[in-house]
Amino acid sequence: MQSAPLRLAAQEPPEFPFTDAEAPRPRPSPLASRRSSLLQSPSASSDKLAALFGKAWAGSDEEIARRHEAEQKAFAENRELLVTSLDESTKLVKSLSVFNQSKWTVHYPHQLGVATVDAPVPHRTLSTPQQTSSSTGRSPREDALRRSMSVRPSTSMQDITEEDAKPAGTLRPEIARAHSTSGVDVNPSKSSVPTPPAHPLSILSIDLKMGHPSTSTAQLPALIPSLSMSTLSQLLSRRLSSSVNHLSSLRTRVLDQSSRVLVTGDLNAGKSTLVNALLRREVMPWDQQPCTTVFCEVVDASANGGREELHAIRDLEKYHRADKQTFDAYPLEQVYDVQEMTGEYHFVKAYVHDNRAPVVADDAEEDGASASFLKNGLVDISLIDAPGLNRDTLSTTALFARQSEIDVIVFVVSAENHFTLSAKEFLWNASREKAFVFIVVNKWGGIRDKARCMRVVGEQIKQLSPATWENRAELVHFVDAAEHVDEVDQPAEVQVDSTEPSAFDHLEQSLRSFVLLKRSQSKLAPAKHYLLNLLADLSTLASANVVAANEELAAALRELERIRPIHERLTAQRDEVEDGVDRVEETVVEKVKGAAWSRLDRALSYIYDGKVVPAQETIAEADARPTFEHADSFEGPAQLPPYPGLFGIWEWAADVKKTLVRALESEVRAAEDDARTETAAGVKAVMTDLGDKYLPEVAGEELTAEQQRQKANRVFRPEVMFAKRRRGVGRLAARGISTGLGLGSAGLGVNWSATDFDVSFFDMFDLERMSSHGAALRGRKQPKMIEDDIVEKGTIVGLGLGSVGMIGSRLIGIRGTMSSLTRIIEVLGSKQARKWAGPVIGVLTVGLVVYVIVDLPRAIPRNIGRKLALALSPVPTDSAAQPVTFASAHSDRISREVRKVLRLAGWDLRERFRAALDKSAAERKEVEGVVARAEGALEFLSEFERSVEKSDEAVQAISL
Ligand SMILES: Nc1nc2c(ncn2[C@@H]2O[C@H](COP(=O)(O)OP(=O)(O)OP(=O)(O)O)[C@@H](O)[C@H]2O)c(=O)[nH]1
């Protein structure tokens, strides 16, 4: 139902500048204007009503009654609609809060709170905390002031109501949504939220100053971008929860029948005097110096059982009129004393009787007093006298004024002083909250150049509260409150005779009208106003977050597109890497093992023959071979020491042995060097070739600094291989060459200490070579076969020539000698033999001796070599045991070391691969999570947007 327009008086607002505040107005009839009485009394004059309440009440009694009934009905309907909308909005805010806390960190478009709105700017940049601050270059406050100053003038109060419910520059949610869903400025390359056009946040804008009282206003824009998403999200959560509280108090207020009027303004502006004037009696303390120190609410004494008294309250939350523990009672006259108890009380309630009657009596005289301001039969009104505004009281009063229970703010300004800074700040904020502010320019009588004063004050009001200015005829009043405090006591004829209503009458009339006749406005408009702003904020947040979610989704999908193939490739290649590493390891180990075995077997066969091992490769090949700078590198002997003759035979034999051992050792080293070369190649194959092929870091990804450092540290140093053996060599070598170069047996897998034998007499003679078996053996067997033979038979039996008999190379000794002699004696036992045996034996003996002496340079190396070879390849005591030969033991040892190194390289690659796989799996999971989250957010937000839009339409449809 369409309610009557708020403009009650028939006259048009005076054009600015005012020419005369006391411009002729319809003369009210002060005594016949008691509304309830008129409703009850059809005979009452409509002129009286018009005089008291303005032209909206003009007309016949029936018309007035009908209008009143219609007002009441509209009010009830609107109230019901508002309560429903408040409940719906509460649900929406709660759902957004849960969404923000558990599903999605709501992006806070902080610039919305500071953007300018000189004209609707469809492409204003929204930004998230990652972005820089305001693009306007102005402070939020400047922007906000500009916004408030640039409101398009509206032509009626109704317009103002509609218009001001949304701050200027506001785009309706559907428009904002149209922009946001049209993909405005969506630039996928940007990480920030792109630009949905939107209105600046009002209810849900960040108020850092509240969180940090020490923060200056100038710091705020600079602070915002430095806040993290989660901090802003928490701030939003707080905002949402305070919004829920506010909605709840609005609900209570909407359902409440009473109205509260806050009278505030500068120090000494005459606030208390105005309250007294409205009561037509001196209740509130007044003085030339500031004397109101605590908020004091004047309530009709009927609310206190008709008893006039002061309730000085320490904790308003706990105050209950019937509970004397919750307040200190004072007589009304002590109001000055109570106000002087600075800091003692938080709030004062003054229960008073209005000097005027509470309701208009049927038989009221026309020249009688007008109806009580506090109690008039319809709505109970209370007046709250606030302490004067200054830096200390500003925030307290602003907070108080924001209370939803405050229906009307009456702002008193002294015509002598105009607006102070505190007054401007308060007024600017208050007009945002309440849209309309009553402004009383007091002490008007003392102003000489009224036109100039009116112009100056008017300009200021125009800037600070445009809505009020637009309705200045009803909302701005130039009065002398002091003159009306005792008015009721004046003789009736003074008022009746007056042909002009006073400015104060007009003020009172407008205030009554505003509070009483437009309860919808005073009680319901703040709720509607708040709801529209809140819903617009919710819509803006939703739109911004739809864009953010879309962008996050797009970015996540792009990222998923990038990392999914990597992850899938890594998963598929896991086995390939395993196989590749194993293959390299097996191939290299087998190769090294075979090569080492061949080299050492060949060396052993030379040693067996008493020869120095010749170099395997050509000089060119030897030069091309990498050399490893390990500590024990030395050149093997090229040949045996020269034979010194019969007299140096013992020393020579020892030198031969040393030379052969050194030659063998040199071959072992050569085999190790070969292994180093192969290992280096194997390590490269694993770490570089396989690494390059399979690790994602080389498949197009930049290496991180840490990866680069790790890669630089992963350098294979072949010379470190076989370090254990080298330490053994070093230690044992100090003990002397007789230890066979001190190779020891520790860890080598072969008993090198077996070479630690002394050259004996029998090493001088190559008895084996003299045996047919030995000759056959030498001529027939290859080194491997010799070794096998040694291993299989465990001994080589040499047969002596003829009577020399069998002499086993390993069993030669006293027993063998005795057995041979026995056989010779047996032969000599026959007579025939005795005849020729002597000469033959003699010849043979001489020949043998000569042969042996001549053969010594060859026999000694052969014997020592054979002895060495046999010592190094011992016969296993357990026939079932695997024989351990010199070559196999060393090739095992060397290949074990190689395997160890390759295992390490393989482990490193596997680890890196596994880490890469894990990382990519984690990344994928995370990105998939982001996708799911963004999709969930979009689902919620689109539903949320629809609900907000629906609620917004419902609230807009409420016509107050
Ligand atoms: N001439 C003139 N003086 C006034 C008028 N209204 C108030 N005064 C004087 O201004 C002084 C301050 O008046 P108060 O009513 O105490 O002012 P206030 O704004 O309530 O003061 P605080 O609340 O203490 O800041 C007193 O001396 C009043 O007599 C007026 O309309 N005209």
TrEMBL record:
User: Which membrane topology describes this protein?
Assistant: Multi-pass membrane protein
- UniProt keyword list: Coiled coil, GTP-binding, Hydrolase, Membrane, Mitochondrion, Mitochondrion outer membrane, Nucleotide-binding, Transmembrane, Transmembrane helix
Q: Which reaction does it catalyse?
A: GTP + H2O = GDP + phosphate + H(+)
Is Nucleotide-binding among the key words of this record?
Answer: yes
Taken from the UniProt entry, a GO cellular component term is:
mitochondrial outer membrane
- Biological process annotations from GO: mitochondrial fusion; mitochondrion localization
Here the segments flagged for biased composition (Polar residues) are 179-193
Q: Which Pfam families match?
A: Dynamin_N (PF00350)
Q: What is its main location?
A: mitochondrion
Residues annotated as region Disordered?
Answer: 1-46, 122-171, 179-198
Coiled-coil blocks: 654-681
Localization recorded for this chain is:
Mitochondrion outer membrane
Q: Domain Dynamin-type G spans what residues?
A: 255-526
Q: Where is composition skewed (Low complexity) in this entry?
A: 30-46, 127-138
GO molecular function terms attached to this record: GTP binding; GTPase activity
Name the record gives this protein: Dynamin-type G domain-containing protein
